[in-house]
Amino acid sequence: MNAGARFGAAVLAMVLAGWALASISSYDVIADVDPSRASLGPSLDHWLGTDHLGRDVAWRLLKASQAFMGPGLLACTVSSLPGVAAGALAGFFGGPIAYALRYLATVIATLPRFVLVLLAITIYGDNMWILGAAAGLAYAPTLAEAVYNRIDSLKRDEFVLAARAHGLGSWRILWYHLLWINCRYLVGRHALYLFSYTLLLETTLSYIGGFGVKEPTPSWGNMLAFEFGQRDGNPWGAWAPALAIWLTILACNLLANSLVEKRRA
Amino acid sequence: MPDRLEMRRLEVRARDRMLLDGVHMSVEAGEILALVGESGSGKTLTARSLLGLPGPRPGIVSAELLIQVDGCCHRPYAGLGPAPWSSKLLDKRFKGIRGAVVGYLPQDARGGLDPLWTVQRLVAESITLGGTSGEPADWLRRAGFDHPAVVQPLYPHQLSGGMAQRVSLAMTMARGSRFIVADEPSTGLDPTVRNGILAEIRKLADDGVGVILITHDLRLVSRLARRVVILHQGKVLEEMAARELSSATSTRAREMLLATARISGGSR
Question: Which residue, A64, A130, A160, B215, is the most exposed by fewest CB within 10 angstroms?
């Protein structure tokens, strides 16, 4: 693990810890309004100060992780289950069904993912879980394509023939040797990219407003929009969510880049 | 009656071209049979047909394979219906034969190892599959590694060609195969390492394993094998005792012998 990956893992661990803390805490985002302490700078009572309604920025920052953590994980699950299964089966067995699946994946890949997700939340409701599921489904063809290509090139390798000659069944070769041993980093990489993509989607929509998480429920996106450009405000009110978005996405990408199969010397 | 593997009337066709035409051979437990021929004569295809793995393109259209082990007779190609047979069907018929009865040492030994597994895990899997006892280190030692602890944590890309050969040998031994098809085990190795590998194969045969040694190196044949089958363009040209090799009658075989002799400076 290189320095970047360690940094990424540490940041993601902190985000996870913050999420867990926010989930068990009794902090009430709605009750915590107190104009008498609006726009305070950082202090021991309020580590990142308060926003212009007097709400604690640090708590809202932690609480906002609930807006993307669940949907992000849902997106990873929703894209991996069909994506990996379809990619692996089509790559290993080939045939006309594989051809049809690839064609379908190509067609879906031509549609902009952002538009697909917007469409889904317009039709099925402005809910972050639906956003996560839609992002996952929209990403599934990309993942399937990647797994397909990897399996398709690996299945011709001599070691697959040797494994067969060794008495291993197709099932074990496919799911264990090809998929688990040789594709897990690939899938992990895509899952991390997808997670950061879902985070970006959620914060973008919440920032723009209209869709996404709305006040008073905190999201890093709407926190940024709420505090951005406030005169005489607490600068951390905007800087903290902006840095949080930037650091989390950077962490996902750094960690994803370290997940590389070391096949060659 | 000793354990025996016999192939008869092997025909493999790709579209309208015959790749193998009536190839036949037989090997007994503890015997080394050499299968020689120039590149493209069908050696590897013959080897894979012994395991029901002809590859994606060509189809086996006829084959009679009889494998006799412990008084139990396997005829995986018998009664398969109209040819060519699908790989799925062959997978089913060769279940319990691949690995357990007939092992395979692939031509590219390093390519034959899962690239993301350590040697330790590779050999451990063979032990589990074969139901044999012992630690990976024991089998590696038996395949000629003096310090197995050094090799065990390595990945295939870190192995030299000779080491990879020994690892796949250890895997085949741990798997408990009764017959081994060795596809050009000596290619690309320096003479010292090659002699080591061949000594291990010799030892294996002495332990009662039947070996089908595929090679185009005729010098090996006279040293190791008892009998030779010479293939040419998918047909068996001659079958003879290895020590009579120099008295081969067909022109093809004589040509090959001469070419070998020229390369090795006249000393076979």
Answer: A130
Q: Which residues of A touch B153 (CB under 8 A)?
A: none
The ipTM of this complex is 0.79
Q: Parse chain A into domains and list their residue ranges.
A: 3-257
Buried b (16+ CB within 10 A) or exposed e, A11-49: bbeebeebbeebeeeeeebeebeeeeebbbebeeebebb
User: What CATH homologous superfamily does A3-257 map to?
Assistant: MetI-like (1.10.3720.10)
In this structure, which amino acid lies at residue B220? L
Q: Do A162 and B117 touch (CB under 8 A)?
A: no
Q: Please indicate whether, in this complex, the C-beta atoms of A165 and B99 are within 8 angstroms of each other.
A: yes
Q: Which residues of chain B have pLDDT under 70?
A: 56-57, 248-250, 257-258, 260-268
Choose among B197, B190, B106, B192: nearest CA to B143: B197
Chain B interface residues facing chain A, Cβ-Cβ under 8 Å? 48, 51, 53, 91, 95-100, 102-104, 106-108, 111-117, 126, 129, 155, 157-158, 168, 171-172, 175
Query: How many other CB atoms sit within 10 Å of the CB of residue B252?
Result: 17
